[in-house]
Specification:
The complex is a heterodimer of chains A (86) and B (140). Chain A is mostly beta strands and 86 residues long. In chain A, 13% of the residues lie in helices and 48% in strands. A six-stranded antiparallel beta sheet of chain A has the order 1-6-2-3-4-5, with no helix packed on it. Chain B has a single domain, classed as Glutaredoxin, CATH 3.40.30.10. Chain B contains five helices and five strands, in the order H-E-H-E-H-E-H-E-E-H. In chain B, helix 3 links the parallel strand 2 and strand 3. In chain B, helix 2 runs parallel beside helix 4 and helix 3 crosses helix 5. The radius of gyration of chain B is 14 Å and the shape is globular. The chains are: A mainly beta (86), B alpha/beta (140). The interface between A and B is medium-sized, with 13 and 15 residues.
Amino acid sequence: MSGITLHHNRDDLHGITVVVEGVSGRTYVGRWHELQERGVVMRDTTILEPDTDKDAALAKLAKFGIPPDHRTFVVPNEEFVGVRKF
Amino acid sequence: MPYPELMIKPMREEVTRLGVQELKTVEDVDAALANPSGTTFVFVNSMCGCAAGGARPAIAKALASTGKKPEKMYTVFAGQELDATARVRSYLGEYQPSSPSAALLKDGEVVAFIHRHQIEGRGPDQIATDIVAAFEAHCA
């Protein structure tokens, strides 16, 4: 992971695999598709629940890839905290 | 939904001209991968312009820059040959599907895997470095 934090209003992330942090404590890992009025549209996304060991889970995703649990998933604006490249 | 073949053809040929055999059917895949002996490189090709557009030339650069190469090299086109792609992925253990991506198998086991997220935003030279590292670590 690069650790780079990017701004919410940038859409040049299209097609890039990202980690989106949520207010709920959930972490969304998948491909950024686009920013819409309702939130961030992601593709082929998996969700890490708040009680997950995130470092371990992200390391596993880095090694084995991201299970496409959700073909399309929208992270609502009110849930969005930040995004970084995976 | 598959793209028009006319659009895909140059992307297929960019890989097959390197001597990488394309697998288009489940039968092709089984014939290629069911016998797990030796080293086998599998490239999952993709229409994606930014990622696959870097990965395809990276394969050419990798093959040109090391004497250590896999014994067999195959490619399948994700989004085009859906059944064949699914079948290829069935040979890749717990590695998750992504495209483009590349796997190196040794005696049927995945010994190196380059995911889409390791391809995105990187140039062919950088991607080739990863491929060469895998070849040099595992191929004769």
